[in-house]
Amino acid sequence: MSNAIQKTVAEPEASSIHFRGHTFLPLLSGGLFWEAEDTLLVADLHLEKMSSFARSGQLLPPYDTGATLKQLACDLAETGAARVICLGDSFHRDEATNTLSTDNKNRLAEMIAGRDWLWLAGNHDPAPHTLDGACRPEIMIENLTLSHEPNREIAGLVCGHLHPAARVHINARSVRRPCFVHDERLMMLPAYGVSTGSLNILSKAFDGLFDRAALQVTMIGRERLYPVSAKRLVGG
Amino acid sequence: MSELPDKIQGWFSGRGWQMRDHQRRVLKATSAGHSALLIAPTGAGKTLAGFLPTLAHLATQNHKGMHTLYISPLKALAVDVARNLTDPIGEMNLDIGVETRTGDTPSNRRQRQRYDPPNILLTTPEQLALLISHPDAHRMFGSLRHLVLDELHALVTSKRGELLSLGISRLARLAPQIQITALSATIARPDLLRDWIAAPVAPQTTELLEMAGGARPEVSILASKDRLPWAGHSANYAIPDLYEIIKNHGTSLLFVNTRSQAEMLFQALWAANEDDLSIALHHGSLDVAQRRRVESAMTRGDLRAVVCTSTLDLGIDWGDVDLVIQIGAPKGASRMLQRIGRANHTLDAPSKALFVPSNRFEVLECEAALEAVHKGVQDSEDPVEGGMDVLAQHVLGMACAKEFEADELFGEIITAWPYRKLTKNHFGRVLDFVATGGYALKAYERYAKLRRTGEGRWRIANARIARQYRLNVGTIIAEPMVRVRLTRSMEKRPGRQSTPRGGRVLGEMEEYFFSQMRVGDTFLFGGETLSFQGMRENEAYVARASAKDPKIPSYMGGKFPLSTYLAERVRAILASPDEWQKLPGQVREWLSLQRDISVLPGRNNLLVETFPRADKSYLVCYPFEGRLAHQTMGMLLTRRLERLRARPLGFVASDYALTIWGLGDMSMMIANGRLSLDELFSEEMLGDDLEEWLDESSLMRRTFRNCAMIAGLIERRHPGKEKTGRQITMSSDLIYDVLYAHEPDHILIEATRRDASRGLLDIGRLGECLRRIRRNIVHKPLLRISPLAVPLMLEIGKEPIFGEGRESAMAEAADELIREAMGS
Description:
The complex is a heterodimer of chains A (about 240) and B (about 800).
Chain A: H1 2-6, H2 12-15, E1 17-19, E2 22-26, E3 32-34, E4 39-42, H3 64-79, E5 83-86, H4 96-99, H5 102-112, E6 116-120, E7 134-136, E8 139-141, E9 144-146, E10 157-159, E11 164-170, E12 173-182, E13 186-188, E14 199-200, E15 216-220, E16 225-228, E17 233-234
Parallel strand pairs in A: 4-5, 5-6, 6-7, 9-10, 10-13, 11-14
Antiparallel strand pairs in A: 1-2, 2-3, 3-4, 8-9, 11-12, 11-17, 12-13, 12-15, 15-16
Chain B: H1 6-14, H2 21-31, E1 35-39, H3 46-60, E2 68-71, H4 75-91, E3 98-101, H5 107-115, E4 120-123, H6 125-132, H7 137-141, E5 146-149, H8 152-155, H9 159-174, E6 179-184, H10 190-201, E7 206-210, E8 218-221, H11 239-247, E9 252-255, H12 259-271, E10 279-282, H13 288-299, E11 305-308, E12 323-327, H14 333-340, E13 352-356, H15 360-375, H16 388-401, H17 406-413, H18 424-436, E14 450-452, E15 458-460, H19 463-471, E16 481-486, E17 505-510, H20 511-515, E18 522-525, E19 528-536, E20 539-544, H21 564-575, H22 585-597, E21 606-613, E22 616-621, H23 627-643, E23 648-653, E24 658-662, H24 666-671, H25 677-680, H26 688-696, H27 698-711, H28 725-742, H29 747-758, H30 763-772, E25 777-781, H31 790-795, H32 807-821
C-alpha cells in the first residue's frame, strides 16, 4: 500500500490495457486511467468500512478512509485527470457519508472541486447522497457502459463489484494479487479501497462472466504491473 | 492440624490405607497457613492430596458458601475429579456439597451456583474468568479458603495460564485469606512455578513439595528386523512388530504426534488385525460422542489398544494401561516422562514404554530421549510472560464486574507472576485500547467501551458490552473448522448435480484442508477412506470410498518443537562414533557412510553441504534446532541468497535440517568468494531481513488474528449471528494490513510480534543457534547428495515449499506471456 503511493504510474507501453478500441493505463493503486477521456476510473472504495463496525462494539483501526483518499489524491496528481468516475460501493454503507471525519470530508471536497465527479450506485451504497459530485446508477461513454455490477449481456461493460484477484503458479512458486481482468465484452477493475478483500477470478462467483479463452489478466505488483499468462492461473 | 479428623482417618483405616507422605506434607503446609506446590509423578494420589486439607477442615467445622475452588485444564478432568471426590465424601459420611461448572452445565444450575455456591466447585480457567466478571463475584468468592490448581504445568506455558494468573490475582483480592495448593507433573524449573503460585498470595509462604519419582520406567527402542525408512513419518515398517506387541500386552496406548499419523497408523493396524483385537482411535478432530465412547470403553478395560494424539496426554486415569508406545519423534524428555506415566498401575511398579522411530533421524532422537528418561532429565518449557492481548481481555472483564480505579487495578495485576514486570505505561496503553481502540487517531470517543466516571474511575459504557465480553471470553482460538458429514457418493446418483445433504457427523477438520480439494479427492479420516463430495456453508460432505491410496492430509510436523536438550544430545551422538554402538546396524552404516563421503556434523559447529542435482544446486545445513526455527532460517536465507543472485527457488525444513535449492551454482559461488557462509549465516539476518520479511509474512497475519480475538478487537461470536471462520480470517488480514501500515507501534501489533517471534518463528532459538555457530561453519562441497541429506531431500514435494509472495513468479508468468505473443 505505502509502496504504491510512492510510484503510481508504471511504464505505459508494457501494461496498457486495450478494450473495445480504447486504451487504458492500469495503475498500481488499482485505478484505471483513460487518457483519451482524461478520466480516472476507480471501483469499490468502500470508504468508512472499518468505522462502520464501531457501532457494534468493534473498534477497528480507523485509517482506511484516510489512506484510500490519500491514494486517490496521489493518482489525481500523477494523472491530472479532469474527470473521476467511482464505479459503485464507494461507501461501505449508505450512512457512511455522514460519518466521514472533518479531515476526510475536506480532503474529498478538495479533490472534487474543479473536476467532473461521478458517483455510480453500488450494492453497498445504492442511495444518492448529498456530497459534491453527481450520483447516477450508471453512465455510457463512447461505446462503453460503466456500472457497478458485471453483466455479460451488455457488450463493452466496465465494472467493479467482485474485487478480482489472481494467483499465478510457476516453477514451484505462487503469488496472489489483485488484478484487472477483461475479455472481448467485459472489463472488471480491482477494488481500490485499502480495506477491501479480494476474490480469485477462478472462483464460482466469476462463473459465466468471462470467456476463458479470451481472458486477459493484469496483476498488480509492488512496483509494476504484470500482464500474466492465463494458463498459469490457479485457484486459492 | 496435620492429623486427620476421625471420620477421614476411619475411612483410610477401613480400607487398610494410610496417608501417604506427600499427602501429609500438603496437610501440614496448609494447616501452617501456607500455600504449596506439590510436584509428583502420575499415579501418586496427587488429587486427593490437594483436597485432604479441605475435607479435614469441612469435617470438623461448618462453612457457609464456597470453601474450595478447583481448576483443571480439562472439563472432562473436572467432571472425573468430582466423581472421585463425591464417593469418598459419601463414604466418610461428610456433609459437603461438590459441583462442577463447565460450558455444559445447564444455565439454571449456573445461575443458582452464583447465589448458592457449593462448598467445592470444580471448573476451568475460562469459567473462572466468567465468574469474576460478574458484579456479585465478591459474594460468591468472599468465603473462599482454598484454591486447588490441577495439572498446572500444562497451563502455565500458554495464554490460558496468563488468563488464569490474572483470575487468581482477582480471587486473592476477593478472598485475601485463600491458600493455594497447586499440583504439577515433574518439570524442569519447579522454583519458577512456585514463584508463579506465590506471587498473588504474597507475603504468605509457598512451600515446594517435591516427591521423588516412583520406580524408574522401563523404556526401550523397538528393534525391528525390517528396513528402517530414510524419511517419512508413517512407521509402516513396524506394523508387524507393533501388532505382535499389542497382542502380548493387556492394554497399550499408542501415542503419535499428529492427527494424520494417527489415522495412518490406525488404518495400518486394522489391516493387520487378523485376530480382530479391539483397537480404537482417539484424536481431537473426532466427534465428541465418539471420543467419549472410546474413553469409557478404555476405562472399562474393553480395549486392547488406543491410537491417540496429545489429546490423551492429560487428565483422567484411563484404567490399566500396560504399555505406552511412542511412535515417531519424542520431541522432549519431560513430555515423554508424562506420557510414559500413563502406564502407571501403582507408583511402585515401573511403567513400561517403547519408542518406535519412524525414520533414521528419529532413531537418534529416540536414543537421546531414552537416555534422558533414564537420567530423569527434565526439559519442559518455563511459564510464559504475560501478553497484552490477554491483559486487555481481563481489563474489560474487570470493568464488567465493577467500576475501577486504574492504579488500584494495576497494583492487583502485577501480583500475577506473568505480569510482574508490567509497566504503568503498557497498562495505560492497554486500558486505552480497551476503552477506545488505543489509536493515535482519536475516532471512537463516541463509541467508547469504557468511560470515566465523575471521580475518574472506569466503568463499562453499557450492558451490551458485558454481554459481548462474556461471549468472547477465553484464549483458545480454534482454526476455522468445518463439520465433516457422511453422505452417499454422488457417483452412484448420476444426473444429480446438487450438493448432497443429511448424514452423520464424523467430526471436524480445518477448513483450509478442504479448500485445496476437488470433488472426488480421497483422504483418511476417522479410520476410513473418504471421498470429498462438496461443501455447503460450514459443512464438508464426504462419502465412503474404496481407494487404496488416499490423498492424505499432509504431515504438518506436530506443534511441539524438538527440545533444546534433545537436540544437543542428538548432535553429541552424531559427533562421537563411540556412542554408535547402541544404534541399529542400518543407522551405524548410514552414519559411517556420511563420515566417508562427507563430514559428520560436530557438537557445536554447523555443517553446510552443497551439491548439484538435476539442473539445480542444493545447500543443506544441519542445525538441529526444530522445524519452526529452521523455517524462519529458510525464509531469511532465501532472501539473502536472492540478493546475492544465487537465484533460490525454494526450501524445505525438518526438525534436524534445512535444504535450499536454486539455479545459481552455490558450490562455485562459495569457492570463488562470491558467497561467504559466515556472512550468509550471520546474526544480522535477524535485523533488517527479518523486519522486511515480517512485512510480507502471512505468519504475522495468522498470529494477529489470535491476538485480535483474544483482545476483543474482533468478535468471535455475536448473539444471534455467528460469523463463519472464513469471514473472520479475511477481515482480520485486512485489519492487520491497515493497522500495520498506519500505526505499526499499536499495542496489538506489539503483541503480535512478540507472539510470532516466540511461537511460529521461534526467533529466540534461531538467535541462539546463530550465536553458537558463529565462525564455526564447516563447508563441504560435494559432487552428489550426501547420506545425511537423503531424508530431507525425500521430503521435497511432500512438505509445503516456501516461495510464497515472491514477485518473481509474476514476472516469469509475464515473460511467458510475452514469449507466447512473440510466437516463440
